[in-house]
Amino acid sequence: MNRKTKFGALLVMMLCFFSMGFADMVGIGSNYVQAELQLNNSLSGIMISVAFVWFLIISVPTGILMNRIGRKPTVLIALGVTALSLFLPILTLIPALEPARFYIYVCAFALLGIGNALMQTSLNPLVANVVRPEGFSSALALGQFVKAICSFIVPLIAQWGATAVLAALTPWGWKIIFPISCAVAVLAMLCLYFTPIAEVLNEDAKQKRVSTEMAACFRMLRSPYVFLCFIAVACTAGLDIGTNSTAPKLFVSVWTLRSPRPASPPRFTSSSAPSVALPARLSWRAGAIRNFTCSRRPCLRSACS
């Protein structure tokens, strides 16, 4: 494979990393779904758990599948599952399916977690077949940077769809992120399918042809070092997921409590005399300053009253 083909394949890998970042929309999506369906925090947490529990369940089976069918077919399956998960929420716009919106969202988030777990397991080894060994770590760092760009852009697109003119003219609203993300995932799948990538196996794998077993993978946890690394990764993932889902609620509650919007100042028409309008405005501003000072310093409440 020449260098030009490798560079084109590397661009396709970066597009796949970008599609991997769609899993982070579960946090912002659960908040919008909670407001849309009037769910409590427990049901909202179930949707988040359904999305990310698959990392624990299918990571090892994905490695076994990758050894049997190859790395590129596994990534293609992951992109297909991701595209399907991003297509399902579009069905909630159909009036006949409105009573089943909660179950559609749960299925969509579950498939999104499955697709992301498949991609997390198989995409990194596939990058090793595209770049040189000395540039493998740099390629992974670049891929994570591209994934972070997707995680940053998705909430902005959702906010744009919920607050822009699009929300008033069309029924999409914040759900505009789903058709856009689905189109990108399909584009990544097509580009990867038509990109020739030769999978290189090491000499030990060619000679032994030993397939990975489930029990052999879990026996690695007997090593204290591997077990501590597993706990560290689990804690880091839990912190990331928890922050992603609860930070918007925390910001809204803190901003509502500490930054109340004062009442609008009195408005006067053009027929009002300036001698009456100016003292009224000054009186309103003085009252607003006094109320703010008293709310910040409890010791002055008696004097204010």
Helix amount:
over 70%
Query: Terminal Cα separation, in Å?
Result: 81 Å
Order of helices and strands: HHHHHHHHHHHHHH
The average pLDDT value, as a whole number, equals 77
The total of helices stands at: 14
Roughly how many Å is the radius of gyration? 26 Å
How many distinct beta strands?
Answer: 0
Q: Describe the largest sheet.
A: none
Low-confidence runs (pLDDT<50, min 5 residues)?
1-5, 203-211, 268-282
| Alpha-beta content class | mainly alpha
Explain the overall architecture.
There is one protein chain. This protein has 14 helices and no strands. It has 305 residues and is an all-alpha fold. Helix 1 packs antiparallel against helix 9, helix 2 packs antiparallel against helix 3 and helix 3 (41-52) runs parallel beside helix 6. The longest helix has 35 residues, at 224-258. The radius of gyration is 26 Å and the shape is globular.
Short summary:
With 305 residues, this protein is mainly alpha-helical. It is built from 14 helices and no strands. Helix 4 (54-69) packs across helix 5 and helix 5 (71-87) runs antiparallel to helix 6 (101-127).
